[in-house]
Write a structure and sequence with these properties.
- This protein has 126 residues and is of the alpha+beta class.
- It has helices at residues 6-14, 55-63, 99-107; strands at residues 17-24, 27-34, 39-43, 46-51, 66-77, 82-95, 113-124.
- The protein has a 7-stranded antiparallel β-sheet.
- The radius of gyration is 14 Å and the shape is globular.
- The structure holds flavin mononucleotide (FMN).
- Flavin mononucleotide is lined by residues 17, 31-34, 37, 51-57.
Length: 126
Amino acid sequence: MARIEGVCREVFDATEWVAIITQGDDGPHLAGHWRSFMFLDVEDGVIVFPVGRFQQTEENLRKSGRVQLLAASKKVQGSRSPGQGCEVSGSGEVVTAGKYVDAVRTKFPGARGALVVRVENTKTQL
Ligand SMILES: Cc1cc2nc3c(=O)[nH]c(=O)nc-3n(C[C@H](O)[C@H](O)[C@H](O)COP(=O)(O)O)c2cc1C
C-alpha cells in the first residue's frame, strides 16, 4: 500500500481541510473534513476520519469503493511558485465497529463510525 510521504505529507500536514470525492449515481459527490480530525498514521497506508453524517459517502463507497482526497497549502512550495496540492486515490469504506472506530473514538467519542481510506496513489498538482 502507498503512503502519504514527501511533499504530499508536507501538504497534508499544512492544510486546514481535505476534500473527499466519491462517485454517486448522479456523478461525483463532494464532502470535506478538517485535517485536525484526520488520523494519518493509524496504520501504514491507511487514513481514517471520524464520521458523523457521511451517509451519502458511505452509500457511494458501498457501490464503487473508490475515493479521492484533495488537499492544498500555500505554505508548501510548488514546482514554480509557493503553493502545492496533493491528490490521493484509493479505496474507501465506512465502518461502524472495529479497530479504526476504536481509534477515532479516542479523540471523538461521539463518532458514529470511521471513514477508512486505503491509499493506492498520491500525486502533486502544482
Ligand atoms: C472543512 C469541513 C469539515 C467537515 N467536518 C465534518 C465533520 O467533522 N463531520 C461531518 O459529519 N461532516 C463534516 N463536514 C460535512 C461533510 O463534508 C458533508 O457535508 C457531510 O457530512 C457528508 O455527508 P454525505 O456523505 O451524506 O453528503 C465537513 C465539511 C467541511 C467542508
